[in-house]
Amino acid sequence: MKLCFAIILGIVITIPFSNSNLAGAQMPDEKPINMALTLWVPNFIAYIAQEKGYFDKNNVDVNITLVQDYANAVKGYANGEYDGMFIVYSDALIQDSEGVDTKVVYNIDTSYYADAIIGSVENLTEVKGKKVGVEGINSFSHIFMLRSLENIGLSESDVEFENILGKDIPDAVVSGQIVAGHVYEPFITEGIKKNLTVLSTGADVPGTITNVLVFHSEIVEQRFQEVMNIIKSLIEAKEDFDRNAAEDIEIMSAKSGLNKTLIEEGLNNVKFLDLDYNSQFSMNNKLNETISLYDSGNSIGKFYAERGVISEYPDIENIVDPRFVKDLMAEKNLQ
């Protein structure tokens, strides 16, 4: 899920957004909520909320910081530089285990075609007894590979894992070091150009690599309505995008610095989620499918705990906070 993370590294751009001139706005001494965005295209919906006045409309004061190095964004959030951020769900669970008290409040998107397994064989079943590559043993890349194998009836013991960076997977397959590996764009396209086969994608194991909006728990409790208004603004921005995609892609490009082609490709490779999806699937603790953050979270947490990545099983019921989605759905149903 690194479609755009590695394009440009190291630059941080802060775009302040204030609605202090609004009637009924927050008191002048109330700090804005600081949010970190990374170069994952669906995150740019926040720019639509900003530029088209949805934050303004919903009376919430937000500072948006674009951090082009994903690892730096995660570190900054952990250190308290940001009140909230868009983050890979599995990383949010690791952070919580490390004492970063976090609430997952909304599921923004899930990777469909932005993550894939490519190989020199014609079918994923043919990797049995051979070497496959993942970017980090016991990482979300490893989880993605395992779930993809389980999906076709293979287990971890059926293959041998090699730790290889995603960008190096195509060449590792071509050289015969491995027969297949997990990659993300633009390395999926690179692999196809080298005549490798796409053996599986995120669409085959939905919910495995998913992008969520998180806030520190104290922010959620102390500034509940403002968090609610941010989520509401993002939902309205997504609805705006559904009506005005070309116009909104222009905004995303102008604010992020990425060209429109990259943004269009990024959006085509994910499933962009809405309030209904969040209510029916993501925030459904009774759904025994990986598209539920509860089911997926318990599975990811079990994997990490058993392998020593985290010290104890995460309390998913405490980490995932469905109150915002429930309240917004109730409001929607009354309209």
**Number of helices, counting only DSSP H or I runs of 4 residues or more:** 15
Strand order of the largest sheet: 1-3-2-4-11-5-12
Average pLDDT number: 90
Could you describe the largest sheet, including whether it forms a barrel? Answer: 7 strands, mixed
* Rg, Å, rounded: 20 Å
Distance between the termini: 36 Å
Shape designation: globular
Overall strand count: 12
What share of residues are in beta strands?
Answer: 15-25%
Flag low-confidence runs: 2-29
Structural class of the secondary elements?
alpha/beta
Which terms would index this structure?
335 residues, alpha/beta, seven-stranded mixed beta sheet, disordered N terminus
Structural description of this entry:
- By secondary structure, the chain is of the alpha/beta class.
- 41% of the residues lie in helices and 19% in strands.
- It has a 7-stranded mixed beta sheet, sandwiched between helices.
- Helix 1 crosses helix 10, helix 4 packs across helix 13 and helix 9 crosses helix 10.
- The relative contact order is 0.17.
Summarize this, please?
Helices cover 41% and strands 19% of the residues.
Can you lay out the helices and strands and say which pair or pack?
Layout: E1 12-17, E2 33-37, H1 45-51, H2 54-57, E3 62-67, H3 70-78, E4 84-88, H4 89-97, E5 102-111, E6 115-119, E7 131-134, H5 140-150, E8 160-163, H6 169-175, E9 180-184, H7 187-193, E10 197-201, E11 210-216, H8 217-222, H9 224-243, H10 245-256, H11 260-268, E12 270-272, H12 275-282, H13 293-306, H14 316-319, H15 323-334
Parallel strand pairs: 2-3, 2-4, 7-8, 7-9
Antiparallel strand pairs: 1-3, 4-11, 5-11, 5-12, 6-9, 6-10
Helix pairs in contact: 1-9, 1-10, 4-13, 9-10, 12-15
